[in-house]
Amino acid sequence: MTTAPGFRTVALIIASAMFMEQLDGTILATALPAMAASFEVSPLHMSVALTSYMLSLAVFIPASGAIADRYGSRNVFRAAIALFTVGSILCGLASNLPLLVLSRLLQGIGGAMMVPVGRLVLLRSVPKSELVSAMSWLLVPALIGPVVGPPLGGFIVTWVSWRWIFYINVPIGLAGMWLASKYIPDIRITERVRFDRIGFVLSGVSLSCLVFGLEMASRGGQSFNLSTALILGGMVAGGVYLWYSKRITNPILDMSLMRFQTFRLSVIAGSLTRITAGSVPFLLPLMMQLGFGLSAAHSGVITFVSALGAMLMKATAAPVLRRWGFRATLVWNGVFSMVCVALCAAFRPDWPLWIIYVVLLFSGFFQSLQFSAYNTVAYADVPSERFSSATSFYTTFQQLMLSLGICVAAAALHLSVVWGGREHAALPDFSVAFLVVTFISLLAAPVSALLPKNAGAEMSGHRAR
Question: Where is this gene product found (predicted)?
Fold first, then answer.
């Protein structure tokens, strides 16, 4: 009889999938200018390579919980890694931007099942009193991806070929499938619940129209009418879904979860904060390469520092939350993190390099603490039997807002270029984009202030005076 693996072992295996996904995204951001040159398109148009993946996540994540309940968490998790790996191979073989987008959509289907199903396994395996520690273990290896990604991506693009940024997922994916087969528990719900096919179609149409409409709108130019039609269509489909979801018992996106105060406020405030989180990996490498004139390799060495700061934070998350609680941490840490990101707007080539490193280090540190707190307090009041639907709901909005962050950043960048009468993005345009996204995310602080003083006390160990 084998001993069941501890939550740290399970968390680290799930984190290997997150590592692969994060590594892929951060390497891709560094490689965008080189890929644009290979496909003979504008670097600004390469944002579709990021948003197409996030679109696929937003469409298929709502189904992840129901699929895991029916077919078993281990089977779904393993199949998701396999699909992500196949999509990576096809991305490396893409000969033009449309083929890359299609391959990223396939890759995103795997990613949509990989991370939320892994998180669901952890939520169902760990008592709430250990959830902060478990989430920290889950996120540490996943943060190695952003640390390694920029310098590795810069090296690959400069000295080999951008195609190898996708091929390196193959050995990681194979290792992840083997570990999942050996250690991930096969958790499934014995009671069969009817899959919400109509809700899946309605939510998929709404989210895909919104994401692609916003992505096209961010480019400006001839696509204005089509982007407007897509956005309006997405809003109509979303409205129909809201009407429909109130009339069935098990909707694919359960809006009744918003009745839980901690879940509702974490979704709203976290969504505003993720506008910046989604935009920074897109803006920073472009700023370093197009604005500073650095090579992809040099750019990657600089931008990896923020992920290093995120890793350093993990040892402090539990003590900080125990001392200050979720509410105070989310309010004040949210302000500090956005101030650090806003300082990126002032970056110029004549700045001492160590100052840029310090700003990015603190930016990564505070942002990582913010998301650790959001990702944990969201489930403080949710009953365990609703973790599946809560995870699908929360992760869907998380990915949607990350995608929106790229669109907002690309739109601000494009408008600044047009207003400045320039043909290509310059440093002032990147400054405008950084300030726009951080202003939006600062609105999360007053929302977080609405949390009760003792919110998530069972998880953090904090006791409000």
Answer: Membrane
